[in-house]
Structures are given as structure tokens and as C-alpha cells.
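Protein fold
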Amino acid sequence: MSRPGLRLMQGIGIAIGMLASGGIGALAQSSAPKDPWPELASNIFSGRPLLDGTGLLAIEMPGRAEDAAIVPLTLRATLGLAETRRIVSFTVVIDENPAPVAATFQIGPRAVIPVLSTRVRVNSYTNVHAVAELSDGKLYVVKTYVKASGGCSAPATKADRTNIGEMRFRQFGQMPEAASNTRTAQIMIRHPNNSGLQMDQVTRLYIPPFFVQFLKIWQGDELLLEMEGGISISEDPNIRFTYVAGGSGSLRAEATDTAGHVFSGSWPSSGMESVE
């Protein structure tokens, strides 16, 4: 397991332990006496230096969330045209969440993904950091501040879960630039993505964590994107990404959740919406 993934799972264990000991009130209400980022950064990235990523990447989120359980988040690679390096991974850290590492996105070895969007849970007012690793091995960081509360403990909005794992795919076609082979695709997975901090309204017991942990997306045989996610990814994970099409091969995806269920889908690169 990757270092971010290890920290993610450790964070989940800490959060569930606090629930078991009756510490949920402290978890939801306490405010850290100091900025948690320096320690988080050191632990998650093994003490590697983090350089200012302004001009190389950007993170976009609303300053105040309308719904803390589904906060839109967009990552953008903003490297200049003359830049020879490429982004090989993004890591999203929601500083004040119970498990701060929301997800790590690995870009395929030959893929170019300049824009990536998803939806996350935000548990309290917090900084959100995006860390990109470039092909030169250096780490670059940017941040934004989000006002939200209670996203990780918000109850699920859909009671019917008979079609867990159903994938919906959309492709938005060619970008308007002339001779561009850049396209945008969206993959949505029907899954409760339980955080472990939500209460069953009937039994009054906490629902165990149950979420999509891994997602891989290919075009033909070429890996485009791989996600390792956690409890901060919202219900019904939604991944939208812009990519440079490398051929006419179909797009396919495979997702694995924490119960070991494997879901997959395959779609032609036709720009048409499809459901698997």
C-alpha cells in the first residue's frame, strides 16, 4: 500500500476508535490549537520538502459549501507550454477531516490529464491542500480554505442500494480548439461510500465504513488514471477528467470497494452516455 494510502487507513482507524470511546462530540466540535498541516505533511509525505505549486497546479473549491457532504473539488495542472515536466500524481488532503487524505490520483505513465474533478465530504472549517508530484520527483503544494461542517457524518441521501456498483459514463466530445484531441469524460459509481461516522437512523448505531477504495481507468490498454480513495469521497463517487486521447480504443474502468466487490464497465469513445 502507498504511503498516502497507509495514512488514510490509519486515519480511519483513529476516527472509528474515537466513536467507540464516545469521542464523537470532541471529534465534531474541537478545534486544533495549532495548524495541523506541518505534521500532516511530514507524516503523509515522509518529510519530503513541499515547494510552492503556484503556477504549476491549482485547486478550486467553493469558499462556503452549500452541502458539506458533496463539496465540488477541481484540480488543474497549469504548467506552461514550454514545461517539459509532467504531473504524475495528485494527493488531496482535507486537513481537519477525521481521515485527512481524501484521495491520491496517479496519472498513467503515458497519459496527460490536465483537469480532474470529484466531490468530497468536508467535516469542519479547514484548509484543503493539493500536492502534485512532478516527473522530476519534486512535490509542489497549493491550498484553499473551505467553510463547511458535518460532511463526514451526514446521513446518506439514498436508501435504495440494490444496484451498488452500477457505473454511468459520459464523454463530452472534443474541445473547441482546432485540431485538439482533448476530451472530457465522467464516470459515476453507485455506492454509499459510508464514512463510518454516519448513524443508522433506525438502529441508532454507527454504520461501518464501506467505500470505493480503488478505481482504475484505461483507454484501450493504456492506463489513464488510478485513484486510491477514502471516506472523504462523497456518496456515489463521481470522477470527471480531461484527457488527451491517445487513440480510438474504448474506455474501461474497474473499481474495488473495501468489502472486496469489483465493479467494471467499458464504453466506446463515442461521446455518448452509457450505463453498465
About this structure: Residues 133 and 139 are 5 Å apart (CA to CA). The chain is about 10% helix and 40% strand. The chain has one domain: 3-275. Residues 3-275 form a domain with the Immunoglobulin-like fold (CATH 2.60.40.2470).
